[in-house]
Design brief:
Elements lengths: L2 E7 L11 H16 L8 E5 L14 H5 L8 E4 L5 H14 L5 E9 L5 H8 L5 H4 L5 H17 L3 H15 L13 H5 L7 E3 L2 E2 L8 E9 L1 H4 L6 E10 L13 H14 L8 E4 L4 H10 L9 H5 L16 H5 L3 H16 L13 E8 L4 E9 L1
Parallel strand pairs: 2-3, 2-4, 9-10
Antiparallel strand pairs: 1-7, 1-8, 4-7, 5-6, 8-11, 10-11
Helix pairs in contact: 3-14, 7-11
Length: 387
Amino acid sequence: MTSIIGWSHSQFGKLVDHPDVQSLIGSVVPGALTHAEVSPAEIDGIFVGVYNNGFSPQGFEAGLVGMAVPELSAVPATRVENACATGSAALFAAIDFIESGRGKIALVVGAEKMTGIPSKDAGELLLSGCYGPEEAMVQGGFAGVFAGIASEYAARYGDPSETLARIAAKNHQNGVSNPYAQIRKDLGFEFCNTVSEKNPIVAAPLRRTDCSLISDGAVAMIVAAPDVAVSAPRRVGFRARAHANDFMALSKRDPLEFAGARRAWQAAIEQARVSTFDLDFLEVHDCFTIAELIEYEALGLAEPGQGHRVLEEGIVAPDGKLPVNRSGGLKAKGHPLGATGVSMHAITAMQLSGNAGDMQLPNATLGGIFNMGGTAVANYVSIMEAW
């Protein structure tokens, strides 16, 4: 099967030593090549995921790979963008390239420099991932959009604030053992559940601990065809993958259903011939804690309105039946938009190859990934295994 055979993951956070995307790309590509034991001459195509849209004045990011790593300057390179799922979009494009027979080995890079502009400007840029005519003026930016979803959830099923705090606390506790995470501190449930000077309301009812971080970061990986991967030093393959979209405007759909996410998940699960609870762990898109809660329900861990139960019963804890976001998720690890999807796949590859260090789960043989762009508009699912 088409496989990831090597990767390199930067620290996520405010990376002052990397002033731009070119520097971030250059920090991870050589390491991925070395890890995969592949030379630049063996790369048939390059796929770059960067959202940008104003975070940097430099566009045309596909050309930056050759600037950062001159040995790759003549390799065909393409930049991909699909909001917060940009990294997964680049990876899927690379796999399509290989499975079409156009190449044997591809380089995928996801990167974003988000801290180079004021936080207020970053918040406004993030709103470009919403449907502008209806959602661009929402108070609180992108957090305000998800705050509206949280308020709708409260009206339909009851106040989820305590459950959201449990999600935040779980993910921050998990992030302590992730060496790449932006925040490696166990904040605890009480802190996450209490509005305070250090944990203020960002957009009611969401608190700061309910929101992912403004981050810099980059991840690179090498993807190879089966006949190449079979002799690689490591290989983590795609048993199944799926991509489904939904209406961009929330007004055109039930905001609590995440119908596109459900369709992508079901397609991948059926292709993999497994059930959700056959998986050993999940990495899911917790841009906001309310997103992770709804994903429990959309991905089949719980019935609608019952997502709180998987936390109360310990199902999604590191030692539970189906650990979710053992990496700390976007909440603790950080969320550099173009890098996130690639990071989720790299973390999963680490788990499945037994190379996750202090994050390692016992007997991890089958992992699921859900990465979304916008408010569950572009939905990507991968079911992965080592072979």
